[in-house]
Amino acid sequence: MNNKRYLALIIGMATCAAVTASDQIVIPAILVKDGDTIRAGSGYGAHHVRLCAIDTPEKDQPHGAEATAALAAMLLSGDPLRIVFTGSAAWGRVNGLIIGDDPKYINLQMVKDGHAWAARDIYADDCGQLLPPEVLQAAEDEARAAKRGLWTLPNPIRPSEWRKK
């Protein structure tokens, strides 16, 4: 991987149309912006997607770079990927659940691997129908107990608290 501000990943070719909650697209091109935000598509068809129901460390926060790299690695796995749009988010983004081929929920995998918190109160919207909060919380509890990812830090701080600093 290079050290550019964003990691560009080409996953395939398709066209993104206007999206509403519960719409789906096959991911054509991806720009990983951080551990829980991507840009899917290109040009006028691009959508900034916030991975629903999870929250990863900020870029300048401990484990932020690792979370971003982990998401990029999952999206580079070669599996076909699709996004299920689950609602709208701040700053012109949409919330989405990224699904791999087996089907592996990328959002859930980020929590299982210790790169994200289960976001019980924010960004959950319609995502909870596809990925129940109790499943995400169980994954976080397991990652925490196994000291995976950010849980190896002596005092992990939720991004919402970090931003208040």
Automatic annotation (TrEMBL):
The lineage of its organism: Bacteria, Pseudomonadati, Pseudomonadota, Gammaproteobacteria, Candidatus Tethybacterales. It comes from Candidatus Doriopsillibacter californiensis. Residues 32-153 form the TNase-like domain. InterPro entries: SNase_OB-fold_sf, Staphylococal_nuclease_OB-fold. Residues 1-21 form the signal peptide. Gene3D superfamilies: 2.40.50.90. Keywords: Endonuclease, Hydrolase, Nuclease, Signal. This is Thermonuclease family protein.
